[in-house]
Amino acid sequence: MSMKFSVAAILFLSLILGACSKSQPLVSFQENDLYGYKDKHGKTKIAAQYVQAYDFNENGVGFAFGKEGWVCIDPQNNVLLHPFPFDNGPDDFIEGLARFVEGKKFGFFDPSCKKVIPASYDFAYPVQQGFAIVCNGCSLVKEEEHSRIQGGKYGLIDRTGKVVLPVEYDSISDVDPNTSSVEVIQGDSKKAIRLP
Question: Which residues form a coiled coil (predicted)?
């Protein structure tokens, strides 16, 4: 047997065994109007206890709604974080990040429910063009089925949590993708700031 063939055969066998040993995501099931999770063989892994549940994603986490509101859980039903509820579900991932709430503060997490940006803001808007507008001293005001942000000071962070503009402005516009700039208002002064 040639050396090239032996190496190729070993690599092929390793790939097959690796694919077979890879764990399959859990899928939700319904029982008595509640949801739980089963494995690929139909064995219950998490008993039915949630009002709503999404199948586990390829990163091995699931999103479910229950007594604690929306949660991100692992296969042992440990709560990893509380995603910000948006539009009757957990916050959407935009540019690979979604928002979570911890102690009434906002931060960002990735699709494996790893906290990427700590929860340190009173509110955070979704990431747009690589940046997120954040505020402190602001509050959510309920208006019928939606809420709006009121008061506070605003700043801008990048996708890693680095502060690009300090939280000191009365307002910040969305990032203009054509000019890579934002318009800020501070008191009576309005100006455009180019972003790095």
Answer: none
User: Residue 190 is encoded by which pair of tokens?
Assistant: 């309005």
Q: Is residue 89 part of a domain?
A: no
Domain count, the chain: 1
pLDDT in tens, 151-176: 999 999 999 999 999 999 999 999 99
> Rounded mean pLDDT of 61-71?
97
The rounded distance, in Å, linking the Cα atoms of 34 and 26 is: 16
The answer to pTM > 0.70 is yes
Which has the closest alpha carbon to 28: 69, 70, 75, 68? 75
Residue 49 lies in a domain: yes
